[in-house]
């Protein structure tokens, strides 16, 4: 049996397609720029990135390849001979499935190693996250099993490309229906899990069990439907029952409203990692402590710009961290790697007090009809030496006039403007 498996792996089409998909996956993972990537530096996202590529791209290709390989005997008209083999139909299907799945697992492991190496170069604080990868490997096995089943029962030349297109369409359609319970049975986790979330390991492992058991059950179908081969007998009921049980759990479990199905909110750290510069403090999740140098530079720039001004918030907490009080501001971190300028801009964007609920922005005629908060933010950003958006010549002229006034006049106007925004009032006229 082992010799036949190795022969099929060596001579079959699955190895060539898997290596081609692996080359594309490695290039995809290595070509990402650390500065703009949304996954390099977060272990959760690195696992999801490999899982999504493995399921949607490699899984679809390998399912098509498995369908082509399974229909080989009928296309070459040697099925009458192959059906008389001492192995039953289920074991023959298992052989073809294992030959393709083992190649995909090998390539999958290489892609995971590449992604984890890139993430470890940015953040070595926490351990790699494996549960999404386990689910991806099991889901790929289900896709290949479906390809073997389709190729055996429908050994046409069109079956192979049809299987690849079918799987791709399934994932595209389900991506637009995230609330559909059926999507949990065909998971491709294209979600954003920053430091706020952790994988729901139990649900991911139940989904992996569903995929693995469903793959074994699907592989028994050709032997049950085709008379020339030995039937698998009652043993086929074991994976079918496991698949029904695991699939039923996935369809009946409900996540809390507003929460993702495959992840849970991370527990609040006992002490977040903070950078304090002057009057400004910026706190991060411990997993994101690699951003401390950038947070320290940003806190220093914000302290220079608004550190002594009343009305501005100077305590920043990364999204998901418990605020320290009503004067705390949210610090959004959308990517694992941020430069100091982007971090400074995010802090200054949160430094202004929020408008009361239901308060519409007031337009400032002098700037050409833009909201008055735009001018306040532009002045603050300019004081922090950040590039400000261009809203037209009239707006730029008012901004230059404010920046040309003495620092004391700027401070008085900024303080009054922050107080007015927090009270839902128009900001005072800009100083001349």
Automatic annotation (TrEMBL):
Coiled coil: none annotated. The chain crosses the membrane at residues 12-30, 50-73, 94-117, 129-154, 166-186, 206-225, 237-257. It comes from the Bacteria. InterPro entries: DUF7224 (IPR055648). Residues 283-424 form the DUF7224 domain. It comes from Streptomyces lichenis. This is DUF7224 domain-containing protein. Keywords: Membrane, Transmembrane, Transmembrane helix. Pfam families: DUF7224.
């Amino acid at each position: 049996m082992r010799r036949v498996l190795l022969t099929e792996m060596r001579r079959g089409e699955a190895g060539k397609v898997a290596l081609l998909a692996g080359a594309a996956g490695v290039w995809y993972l290595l070509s990402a720029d650390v500065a703009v990537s949304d996954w390099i530096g977060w272990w959760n996202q690195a696992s999801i990135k490999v899982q999504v590529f493995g399921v949607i791209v490699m899984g679809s290709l390998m399912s098509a390849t498995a369908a082509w390989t399974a229909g080989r005997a009928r296309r070459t008209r040697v099925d009458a001979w192959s059906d008389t083999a001492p192995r039953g139909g289920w074991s023959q299907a298992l052989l073809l499935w294992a030959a393709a799945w083992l190649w995909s697992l090998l390539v999958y492991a290489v892609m995971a190693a590449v992604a984890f190496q890139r993430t470890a170069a940015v953040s070595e604080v926490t351990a790699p996250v494996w549960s999404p990868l386990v689910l991806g490997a099991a889901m790929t096995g289900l896709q290949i099993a479906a390809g073997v089943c389709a190729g055996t029962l429908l050994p046409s030349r069109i079956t192979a490309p049809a299987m690849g297109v079918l799987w791709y369409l399934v994932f595209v359609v389900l991506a637009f229906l995230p609330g559909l319970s059926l999507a949990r049975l065909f998971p491709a986790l294209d979600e954003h899990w920053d430091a706020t979330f952790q994988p729901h390991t139990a649900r991911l492992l139940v989904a992996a069990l569903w995929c693995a058991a469903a793959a074994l059950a699907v592989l028994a179908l050709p032997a049950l439907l085709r008379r020339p081969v030995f039937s698998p007998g009652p043993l086929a009921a074991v994976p079918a029952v496991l698949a029904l049980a695991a699939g039923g759990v996935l369809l009946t479990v409900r996540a809390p409203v507003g929460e993702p199905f495959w992840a849970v909110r991370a527990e609040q750290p006992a002490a977040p990692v903070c950078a304090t510069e002057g009057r400004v403090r910026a706190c991060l999740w411990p997993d994101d402590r690699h951003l401390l140098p950038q947070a320290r530079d940003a806190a220093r720039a914000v302290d220079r710009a608004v550190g002594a001004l009343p009305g501005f918030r100077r305590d920043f907490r990364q999204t998901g961290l418990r605020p320290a009080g009503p004067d705390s501001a949210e610090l959004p971190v959308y990517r694992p790697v941020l430069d100091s300028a982007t971090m400074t801009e995010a802090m200054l964007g949160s430094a202004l007090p929020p408008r009361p609920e239901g308060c519409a922005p007031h337009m400032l005629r002098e700037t050409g009809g833009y909201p008055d908060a735009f001018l306040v933010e532009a002045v603050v950003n300019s004081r922090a030496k950040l590039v400000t958006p261009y809203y037209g010549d009239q707006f730029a002229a008012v901004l230059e006039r404010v920046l040309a006034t003495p620092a004391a006049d700027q401070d008085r106007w900024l303080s009054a403007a922050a107080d007015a925004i927090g009270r839902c009032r128009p900001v005072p006229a800009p100083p001349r």
